[in-house]
Amino acid sequence: MLKHLYIRNFALIKELDIDFQSGFSVITGETGAGKSIMLGAINYLLGQRADIKSILPGADKCTIEATFGIEGYNLKSLFEENDTDFDEHECIIRREFTTSGKSRAFVNDSPANLSFLKELGYQLIDIHSQHQNLLIAKEDFQLHILDVMAQNNTLLEEYRTCFATYKQTGQELQNAKEILAQSKAEEDYLRFQLEQLEELNPKAGEDEELEEEQNELSHAEEIKSVLYKADSLFSNDSEPGGIIELLKHICQDIQSLTRVYPAVEEYAGRIDSALIELKDISGELNNLAEKVEYNPARLEEVSNRLDQLYTLEKKHDVKSAAELEAFMRELRQKLDVISNGEERIEELEKAVQEKLEKATALAEKLSKSRIKAAREVEASIGKMLTQLDIPNNRFEVRIEKSRQLTENGTDQVTFFFSANKNVDLRAISDVASGGEIARLMLALKAITSKRENLPTIIFDEIDTGVSGKVASSMANLMQEMTANSKHQVIAITHLPQIASYGTTHYRVYKEDTEEQTFSHIRELTQEERVTEIAHMLSGNEVSEAAILNAKQLLKQ
Question: For the purposes of burial, counting CB atoms within 10 Å of the CB of 102, is it exposed (0-12), middle (13-18) or buried (19 or more)?
């Protein structure tokens, strides 16, 4: 239940800090006093996107916070799924947003996203405004009523999972058929492409190796000449000017000084090391020169191979032999799909049929539960509408089967209603009376609230279009909805008959200051209730008769 509401700098509300009680509460006030503003603030706590235009003019930041009692509502798993601290007794939801556009949400002081707020809000509170009476004509809403009454949550979830799998497998089958049909049309061309590639048989990296070899073969004479010349300059002993021979003499001369000038001993050793390294280099250059071969035939073979690779790379819009090899594998896979496509389609057709049969069986279970719930709804609504001063009412739930499975099964639900004798039943969408629709919606909310286990329901002027005795009957029904201590009902009303039934009475009012106009709310004492209801009965001028009438209403 909603235990506490705090609002700061929202619309016309500078600061509101109010406790709410269990049972049946009523909120009254002049039109435009701010009742809808308060509901708008609560809607932000339920995941509505923030609008900086809602911030009180002159303020930088708006804060809305509500405390809900959640004991016994099995919400722990929802908090765990959203990685949020859980208190089995209370839940605090807070929204903050600023004129700069920054918005933050918290649940039990843990940051929360809007999807979590919406999911949590759905479990905590139902705000029923006047325009929602139009929902009663919607097929989805009527179907939802039956599912709530039949307590189909688990079964409906199982069916929807099965239905989604069936649709997904069906799409896979359709895709496989289209691919097979397209692939068969391209089969000859695919095989031609594959034969070309398999004849060449490209390997990843071979183009780079061939380019390196081509470069070596093209410059073989130049490479051999330079390597032999380098080797000769390093190690030709017949040349007194050879690098290695010169270093030998330098090393010997330096070593001869070590006995008289020890400081050069280190350099003699370093020259000797360099001499050894140069001898190795000279030998390795000689070996490389011996390996390099001028081979025009091999050069032509390498060049031809590269030309073939380049041609196919350009043809298939790839940039390397590795990509050519990958494309060749892809062609094999496509042709394999063609070869095995019929078998794959048969497997998918069998899977689709199995999933269809399972979904159909679950849909049939849903239908049976809904038919049973429909009879219960008919009986309950009939009694309640009689209680709400429609004694000659007839209410009927008609269920027709669709040929195709839908997300909700195969049932198409329509509520039929007649308020008077000798008047044919008509679909709810054709019933014109706002007062009759309001009473019918209240009756539906009353029967479903017991099954949904919803802590708080707020009715925003559901009494539109009714008055007098009917209003008292509606109030009585709303009061009965709170007989179970787990339910809290709050009614925003302009009717004194409904206001008098509230266990707790709140008044919303405006206050003009030098700065601007502000909205406030406060709980009324018993004496204040008499005055408020008297105002509702007689207007601004409260008569003695109105006071007596108000006391009589409260006493009843």
Answer: exposed
Token representation of residue 146: 């039956």
Sheet with 517-523: strands ordered across: 125-128, 456-460, 488-492, 23-28, 504-512, 517-523
Written as one string, the DSSP assignment of 479-505 is HHHTSSTT-EEEEE-S-HHHHTT-SEE
133 band by pLDDT with thresholds 50, 70 and 90: low
Mean pLDDT, range 445-455, rounded to an integer = 82
How far, in Å, CA of 233 to CA of 239, rounded? 8
DSSP-assigned beta bridge partners for residue 92: 67
Say which range, 76-85, 415-424, 512-521, has the weakest mean pLDDT: 512-521
Over residues 222-240, mean pLDDT: 72
Please give the DSSP secondary-structure letter assigned to residue 525.
Answer: P
The pair phi, psi for residue 152, each rounded to 5°, is -90, 10
Contact 456, 128 (CB under 8 A): no
SS (H, E, C) 39-56: HHHHHHHCCCCCCHHHEC
Q: Does residue 183 contact residue 341 with C-beta atoms inside 8 Å?
A: yes
Q: Are 50 and 97 in contact (CB under 8 A)?
A: yes
Compute the residue count for the chain: 556
Tokens of 538: 């007689």
User: What 3-state DSSP class applies to 135?
Assistant: helix
> Hey, how many other C-beta atoms are within 10 angstroms of the C-beta on 541?
8
Domains of the chain: 1-129+461-524 (3.40.50.300), 206-319 (no CATH)
Closest CA to 455 of 121, 228, 132: 121
Among 27, 25, 20, smallest CA distance to 2 is for 20
Q: Which amino acid is at 22?
A: S
Cβ atoms of 148 and 142 within 8 Å: the answer is: no
- End-to-end CA, the chain: 27
Q: Confidence band (pLDDT; 50, 70, 90) for 81?
A: very high
In this predicted model, what pLDDT tens digit does every residue of 142-159 receive, in sequence order?
A: 999 999 999 999 999 999
* E-assigned strand segments in 443-552: 456-460, 488-492, 504-512, 517-523
The model's confidence at residue 349, banded by pLDDT at 50, 70 and 90, is very high
CA of 52: how far to CAs of 33, 42, 59, 96, 278, in Å? 21, 16, 11, 11, 80
